[in-house]
Amino acid sequence: MTDTITATLNASSKGSRMKVRKAVLPAAGLGTRFLPATKAQPKEMLTVVDKPQIQYVAEECVASGIEHIIIVTGKGKNSIEDHFDSAPALERFLEEKGRHDQAELVRKISNMLQVSYTRQKEPLGLGHAVLVARDLVGDEPFAVLLGDVLIPGKNPATKQLIDVYESIGVGAIAVEQVPKDKTHLYGIVDAVPAPQPPFGERLLRIRDLVEKPKPANAPSNLAITGRYVLPSAIFDCLERTKPGAGNEIQLTDALRILAKEQGLFAYIYEGISYDAGDKLGFLKATVEIALQNPEFGAAFREYLKTLKL
Ligand code: UTP
User: Fold this and answer.
1) Smallest Cα–Cα separation from 162: which of 187, 177, 144, 175?
2) For residue 31, which phi and psi values (nearest 5 degrees)?
3) How far away, in angstroms, is 27 Cα from ligand 1 center?
4) Please, are residues 87 and 106 in contact by the beta-carbon 8 Å criterion?
């Protein structure tokens, strides 16, 4: 570990860290993997069972203690703003018909937390999307949740990362084990165990990050999952990041700088993620979440058993 990182970790452990109150939800990508569904509607608004994907992500924020989300939108993404806005006419209609539960369901979406929007004029990459949220985040640590990655469950992945940040004072990113022959599909971390209570073996210190390495060159099988808690120093790292793969400003490249200059942890979070921006991932998320539904999960399970697979 370099002296700079040691100094940063020491300063952090002396209690200079701040509470994580804000989250950035990048949702300005074109969603080309999900064409034609995404030709005229945002992939983040595609419905998994009965809610658009981005509502699951916003609910993860609420469950993690986040107070304010900043959604990075772009061309053709207005329905995201409409979804989180209040809908007085619809609420009135439902109340007048005595459908109070539904009215409450609609009202809750606009009241669950503070939502701001900023626009990425062109989809210049995930790193660029995070950078355009800089003014709204300000000089405080924040979470990043990809708008199309779903991690259902009672122990929100973002909360797990916030616990690491608020305990150690250094950025943390969620990772999960993937099959060794699939590393070329993910961002992979080069990390060494850094166990400490209460996080135990789940905590690792990142030495480097590699975008989609061939299995033979992969430093580990721990893939970056789409949840991050970062210090505001990431913005300076992003400013210094040149366009990389696909001519896009990659968040992974800025994280490499952050890891080297300030330190960064990987956390093997508890839970399962679904890349719902991918057709197969979307189907898996739909089946898993439908099976957990209290109203019709059991009936759906019975139906699945009747399928001749
Ligand atoms: P993805 O790579 O999954 O999004 O980015 P994409 O570019 O829309 O996907 P495909 O490959 O064309 O299907 C992960 C998240 O980052 C956002 C996306 O909206 C998604 O939620 N993103 C990506 C941006 O906000 N801006 C970008 O320039 C790129």
Assistant:
1) 144
2) 65, 40
3) 7
4) yes
Atom number in ligand 1 closest to CA 29: 8
Inter-residue contact 193 to 222 (CB < 8 Å): no
Is the preceding omega at residue 198 within 30 degrees of 0, hence cis?
Answer: yes
Amino acid at site 6: T
For residue 208, which amino acid is it? D
Q: Residue type at 226?
A: G
Answer for the pair 199, 193: CB distance below 8 angstroms, yes or no.
no
Under 8 Å CB-to-CB from 56, ≥6 apart: which residues?
48, 150, 152
To the nearest 10 degrees (0 to 180), the angle between helices 88-96 and 100-111 is 160
- Residue ranges and CATH numbers for the domains of the chain are 3-293 (3.90.550.10)
Give the pTM: 0.92
Any residues with CB less than 8 A from the CB of 279 and at least 6 apart, and which?
A: 33, 34
| Residue 56 · residue 64 · CB < 8 Å | no
Determine the Cα–Cα distance for residues 154 and 156; give it in Å rounded to an integer.
Answer: 6
pLDDT digits (tens, 9 = 90+) for 230-277: 999 999 999 999 998 788 999 999 999 999 999 999 999 999 999 999
149 CA: nearest ligand 1 atom: 21
